[in-house]
């Protein structure tokens, strides 16, 4: 790392703990918010803790605005000297301090006088909508209020990097909706890089400029929300965005899947490919359909459950898939587990893209 290191965050995080290993490269520009999205146990929080200096690197480096915080070429900068603001999942407010003193803690530690730090803290509480709450202790705050105090505490320290670990996970549905919108506003105003760790796709899509999907300690896909959701590359991402996803080898419009089944898409492609289609594209029939569907197969109903205004039907067979039908259609078909049924998807509904 040298003077040419770009502004923002540049990190290669390698952390080994027993059989678990993360190997993750992150580049976050000033003013950009990146969401680390993935299932529980993927390594998201470990990556965040490594950035904060709470988890030792096995290898790699962390550089922030050109200054190396950790790496083989320098001594590790301790957490308290990293100018990094962290909002933990459980907020971890100091229980013996009032809200205003929690927020003033960072500026005070950096040498700001008590009166000036409390004035700054009061201003931040006002900015997060908690004017008049300064004298309350954490146990006197609701979940949403505690989250906002934790955010104000992190921002009041003027962090060069902001890290948020599942910041909305502890909130009820209504509070989560309001707080998410408020958090988005504050992230948009933050001039440094920010990273949000979450397993909730809605939080990731609403809060972040870019998504990095982490599975088994490594990035499996990254990009803006549109590109990631339009072309998922793992089953986990496909489930998040509600798509049936398959991998195989394309030859023209035919895609021979790893399972041996063949799908026909509308557009021609050659080589390793993914094929995806939404459950709403799957039509179900009691008997083999007449007409022009290019992709038709006999399946077994593995399960039926409510999914919004529709019913989600899980299909087993040569092509395992999910299909969405209306309650009226399900009643007409008499759907129940174990039932044999025919499924069809039009070629125009199948999105094929290189693997």
TrEMBL record:
Annotated keywords: ATP-binding, Molybdenum, Nucleotide-binding, Transport
Domain ABC transporter: 6-241
Annotated InterPro entries: AAA+_ATPase, ABC_SmlMolc_Importer, ABC_transporter-like_ATP-bd, ABC_transporter-like_CS, Mo/tungstate-bd_C_term_dom, Mop_domain, P-loop_NTPase, Transp-assoc_OB_typ1
Mop domain segment(s): 290-354
A single MF term (Gene Ontology): ATP binding
Highest taxon, organism lineage: Bacteria
SMART domains registered for this protein in UniProt: AAA
Coiled coil: none
Protein name: ABC transporter ATP-binding protein
Organism: Glycomyces niveus
Upper classification of the organism: Bacteria, Bacillati, Actinomycetota, Actinomycetes, Glycomycetales
